[in-house]
Each structure stands twice: as structure tokens, then as C-alpha cells.
Amino acid sequence: MTNALAQVDWELLHRTAIEAMERAYAPYSNFPVGVAGLVDDGRIVSGCNVENASYGVGLCAECGMVSDLARTGGGRLMAVWCVDRSGEALMPCGRCRQLLWEHGGPECLLQTPLGVRSMSEMLPQAFGAHNL
Ligand code: THU
């Protein structure tokens, strides 16, 4: 993980995640979230949460980010930083860890309140494409 860590511009990811969070549409929870990810070709993708009057239909920030990933050419997520309104690292919800697993796999790095961790640590014994 040390090598992979050195190649990530965490400062840029953090800044991009905060910018995304500032665009969140979260009038119901008042809990804006932003996320940014580094793609294996060097692109940065991002997303914010977008809520709905039909509460259950709301989209997490990570949903927007994986849509941005697909829309801008696909690829693999190498590192991800999700933030709350204070810019503090926010742990992706269970569903969104599954999204990160799908597009980043076990090696993808995640910034957490306890430091950088791999997705294999954040979603142990994950269900994935290899199960199908
Ligand atoms: N939220 C995210 O965008 N990502 C997460 O990983 C956790 C939760 C959003 C969903 C909802 O709009 C708000 O945070 C409060 O749950």
C-alpha cells in the first residue's frame, strides 16, 4: 500500500470532494456529502448527494461519482475521499462501499477518519463479480 499511497494527490482529492459537497442538493437531511476519486488513467471524478421529496429515492454522493466515472470513460478507481460538510473524512454507507468495490476492487484506497485504508479492509469478504 505504501507505493500506491505515494502516487495519490490526496490534497487534490480532498479539495475536489469539498467542491462537490458544496454543490450537494440535501434540503431534507441537511447533510451535504461530496466525494472524489482518482481513476487509473489519472482522471479525477466526483459526486454529491442529490435528495428527493420521495426520501428513499435520494442519491448518495458516491452514486454521482460512479456515474461521472462511467460518463467520462470508465476505468478503475484507485483512491477515494468522501467528505461531510466540515470537509472531514466520511465513511461511505454500506451500499456505497459496494459501489466502490465494483469500480475499484480490493486495492482501492479510501481516506477514513483513522487514515487511509484499502477497500478489502472496509468491505471484508465482499460479494462481487467473482461470485457470479
Ligand atoms: N450520504 C451519502 O451521500 N453518502 C454516504 O456514503 C452516506 C450518506 C447521504 C445520503 C443522504 O442524502 C445524506 O447523506 C444523509 O444520509
UniProtKB/TrEMBL annotation:
PANTHER family the record matches: CYTIDINE DEAMINASE
Pfam family of the protein (one): dCMP_cyt_deam_1
Protein family (similarity comment): Belongs to the cytidine and deoxycytidylate deaminase family.
Organism, scientific name: Allobranchiibius huperziae
Organism lineage: Bacteria, Bacillati, Actinomycetota, Actinomycetes, Micrococcales
InterPro entries: CMP_dCMP_dom, Cyt/Deoxycyt_deaminase, Cytidine_deaminase-like
Enzyme class: hydrolase
CDD domains on file: cytidine_deaminase
The enzyme's E.C. designation: 3.5.4.5
Protein name: Cytidine deaminase
The keyword Translocase appears for this protein: no
Keywords, sorted A to Z: Hydrolase
Molecular functions per Gene Ontology: cytidine deaminase activity; zinc ion binding
Domain CMP/dCMP-type deaminase, residue spans: 8-130
Keyword Hydrolase in record: yes
Cellular component per GO, a single term: cytosol
GO biological process: nucleobase-containing small molecule metabolic process; pyrimidine-containing compound metabolic process
Top-rank lineage group of the source organism: Bacteria
